Structures are given as C-alpha cells and as structure tokens.
Amino acid sequence: MRTEQEMMQLIMQTAQQDERIRAVVLNGSRANPNVEKDMFQDFDIVYVVNNMASFTSNHSWVDVFGDRIMMQMPEGKVTPPPENKGHFVYLMQFKDGNRLDLTLIPEEKLASFQPFDSLSVLLMDKDQLIGELPPPSERDYYIQRPSEQEFADVCNEFWWICLNISKGLWRKEITYTMFMYEQINRNALMQMIDWYIGVKTNFSVSAGKLGKYYPNYLDEEDWEKYRKTYSCGKDLERIWEALFTMCDLFTKLSKHVAHTLDFAFQQEDVTNVMTYMRRIRELTNHG
Fold first, then answer.
1. Most Cβ neighbours (<10 Å): which of 20, 69, 153, 229?
2. pLDDT at 145
3. Is 83 helix (H, G, I), strand (E, B) or coil?
4. Which helix (H) or strand (E) holds 273?
5. 9: helix, coil or strand?
6. Cross-referenced Gene3D superfamilies, in alphabetical order (predicted)?
7. How far is Cα 202 from Cα 185, in angstroms, rounded to an integer?
C-alpha cells in the first residue's frame, strides 16, 4: 500500500506538471486535525482547472493515479441524477487500498464553489485564484440549534412512523417494517441525538459523519441503548424490542432537548402512540 506521503507526492506532482490544473485543495478527514489517521481515510482532493472538457472527454488521464479496483463518476450517471453544478468527480478505489475522491472545478465557475468547506487546506495556487484559507476546523459541521418547529416536526414524524411500523409488524411485512424503522425513524432518532449533544455542548461540536462521535458524548447507558436499537432481524419479537428501546431513548432525549431549549413537548402523542403500540404488539403475539 502506498504511503500517505507517496500519494500526496503523486497528487501534487500531477498538478504541478499539468498546466491545465491551476490550484489544489485538500478537504475531508485528512484536513481535520481532530481525526485520528488510519489506512482507510480517503484522499479528498479538489483540482481547479481550465479547459475542463479536455479532462472529461477522455477519462484515461486518471490512470496516472494507479491501478483501480473500480471507479465511480457521479456526474456521468443517470441514477442517481447528477448535481449539474459544473464540476466533475472521480471516485477511485485503488488495488493497493488507497482511495482518491477527486473533484474538478472549472476555473470560470470557482466563485460558485466558494467559500470552501471549513475542512479545507490550500496546497497549491498557481495564479492566486483562491487566496489564503483559514486554518481547517469542524465549524461547518457543528450541530445546528433547531427551531421549535423543526423540533416539533421531527417528533411528530418519529411517532407517526411508529404507528406504521406497528402495522407492518402485525402484518408480518418485514420489508415495509424495516424500511420505516431504518430509513425514516433511524434518521429521526439520529437527528434528536445530534440536538441532544448540541444542547449539552452549546452547539459547539460536530457529531461526526453518521454519528461517529456519539460514543464521545452519550453516557454509557444511552450509548448501550442506542446500540440495542440495531438488534433486529427476521424475528418479529426482536424487532418489537428494538422498536421500544428506540422509543424509550427518543423520549428521554427529546424531553431533555425540549426542556433545555424551552420548547413545547407533546407528551400526549408519546402516551397515545406507546399505548397503541403495546396493544398491537399484544395482537401480534396472540393473533
């Protein structure tokens, strides 16, 4: 496996030798001073270029970066649809284990991509197109304080979907049930955890990508309870147990957020939905 130094040397050498590449920016986890380095960190690189079409008309130029297992080009896809902002992205997984996520930004569209993400380090700027960047930090990723309406909407969605999950469990429709559980209620729970961490830290930290830092901010009991929300499978009773664990955790955290931010808390919704769920669970077990 090529070392970080070898990869960065290749990335910078390629940019230095190609007159079409005018600036290089590093972003992502390798720009984050708070992240512990490991072998699976991507190299998230931006090349600011001129003559964009000369790059995208023949993709073989990226072969210089090494032998690949596979590559994705999101802007060249139909599904999911591309962003169409004028940039082009190469996601490359190499056989030696390294990964390079390379974004090309046309020089003439640079202004629309600024200011750069707070986790950005300027590595090269041949024409002073970008100027000095502030020291990298997680400030763009700090948990944001919700409005009372945002808080109410997430609570309402969570408890409403609990009704759907209960119905799916009674019908033994695993695909429907698990979609509702993992794709909708999981997101609502994670949003509430983020806000809970936010109120505990005065909204001055990031929860990390997909909750990476949850173990740092949740106490042992809450973290263990969160882990148990994944204790699912084809067994309906295990799904019920995980669902009620999820509800208990959501209730505890949402009450804390509401109290701290002086938001209204809809206890009636919680009581009504939990009562309904227990009744449907009983029907499922004896139906």
1. 229
2. 98
3. coil
4. helix 267-286
5. helix
6. Beta Polymerase, domain 2, Nucleotidyltransferases domain 2
7. 25
Residue where one domain finishes, among candidates 125, 140, 155: 140
Q: What type of residue sits at position 95? A: K
Q: Exposed (0-12), middle (13-18) or buried (19+): which is 202, by Cβ within 10 Å?
A: exposed
Cα separation, 254 vs 177, in Å, equals 23
Q: Using the 8-state DSSP alphabet, how is residue 37 labeled? A: P
Helix or strand or coil: residue 88? Answer: strand
The average pLDDT across 224-251 equals 93
Cis peptide before 115 (omega within 30 of 0): yes
What CATH number is associated with residue 49? 3.30.460.10
- 80 prior amide bond cis, ω within 30: yes
Other Cβ atoms within 10 Å of 108 Cβ, number: 10
pLDDT in tens, 51-78: 999 999 999 999 999 999 999 999 989 8
Output phi, psi for 97, to 5 deg.
105, -15
- 134 lies in the same domain as 241: no
